[in-house]
Design a protein that fits this description.
The chain has helices at 7-11, 41-46, 75-84, 102-113, 125-131, 160-169, 180-183, 218-221, 242-253, 264-268; strands at 4-5, 19-23, 26-31, 34-39, 53-54, 92-96, 119-122, 157-158, 173-176, 200-201, 233-236, 258-261. The protein is globular and about 50 Å long. Helix 4 links the parallel strand 6 (92-96) and strand 7. The model has no long low-confidence stretch (mean pLDDT 94). By secondary structure, the chain is an alpha/beta fold. It has two domains: 4-152, 3-Layer(aba) Sandwich (Oxidized Rhodanese, domain 1); 155-268, 3-Layer(aba) Sandwich (Oxidized Rhodanese, domain 1). The strands form three sheets. Strands 1-7-6-2-5 form a five-stranded parallel β-sheet. Strands 8-12-11-9-10 form a five-stranded parallel β-sheet. It is built from ten helices and twelve strands. Helix 4 (102-113) crosses helix 9.
Length: 280
């Protein structure tokens, strides 16, 4: 299964056996003490792609006991949550959201983490689906619980220790997926301004065409990343969401040693021993 599919591709296959469609939307709003994370469940309930379930990254697909937002649950707990949404080992999964595909990319990356490779992101998400005149519905029937095995790939998840080592040895390519204003230290959201030393900036928002909500052409996106497709790349952002979109596109482009630092700056910037810079 291709990793990025068009709305026409999905429209032609709605109702197909083993197809599972999931809305992964979360909305971030700026509050007085930082971002407020709001589930997209209410929006999903008012109109979803026919047959689409809701994958809740605020509650059901995260470790709610962690001090970090969007923290990974155990691989088995995540697989169990996906089973409840009808995903099994034979499924073809299409993920979308209403917010530039970053949240869909996070669920795609988590599926990759547990060894499930038959998933794709709907290019343009709900915005493109509606713009093309395709139907939405409020009629949803919960699927029967499925069985999903776990074959964990720990290499696709980076932790603070790996990132610290990358800063020191320079062998790993660190990519900051936040907007340039954050990377440059002009905007300070996570407690300390700037970026992790040695990182380069490839904003996840800049991977998307603002008009359509679709990813930019792959030949354009290829120039945003290193020349060596075998290089180890670790992507980070604030909470590992935008970083997942960058990691997704790198994988589509053929990079084969890509990871997401899921705790990202919410962890790093709060550790006084973890260096940050506004240079370069």
């Amino acid at each position: 299964m291709q990793q990025l599919v068009s709305i026409d591709w999905l429209a032609d296959r709605l109702g197909s056996r083993n197809l599972v469609v999931l809305d992964c939307t979360v909305y971030l709003k700026m509050g007085p003490d930082g971002f407020i994370s709001e589930s997209g469940r209410d929006n999903w309930a008012m109109g979803q792609i026919p047959g689409a379930g809701f994958a809740d990254l605020n509650e059901h697909l995260v470790d709610t006991d962690s001090p970090h937002r969007y923290a990974l649950p155990s691989p088995r707990a995540f697989a169990d949550a996906m089973q409840e949404l009808g995903v099994d080992n034979r499924s073809r999964v299409v993920l979308y959201d209403d917010n530039n595909s970053m949240w869909a990319a996070r669920v795609w990356w988590m599926l990759r983490w547990i060894g499930f490779d038959n998933a794709a992101i709907l290019d343009g998400g709900l915005k493109a689906w509606k713009a093309a005149g395709h139907p939405v519905t409020t009629d949803y029937s919960k699927p029967s619980k499925a069985t999903l095995f776990v074959h964990e790939r720990p290499v696709v998840i980076a932790d603070k220790a790996e990132v610290m080592a990358a800063v020191e040895d320079g062998a790993t390519c660190l990519i900051d997926a936040l907007p340039a204003a954050s990377f440059n230290g002009d905007v300070n959201i996570y407690g300390r301004p700037g970026h992790i030393p040695t990182a380069t900036n490839a904003s996840a928002a800049a991977l998307i065409d603002e008009k359509t909500g679709c990813y930019l052409p792959l030949d354009i996106l290829r120039d945003r990343f290193p020349d060596d497709e075998s290089a180890r790349i670790v992507n980070y952002c604030g909470g590992g969401i935008a970083a997942s979109s960058a990691a997704f596109i790198q994988t589509v482009l053929g990079f084969d040693n890509v990871a997401v630092y899921t705790a990202s700056l919410q962890e790093w910037a709060n550790d006084a021993n973890a260096p940050m810079t506004i240079d370069g």
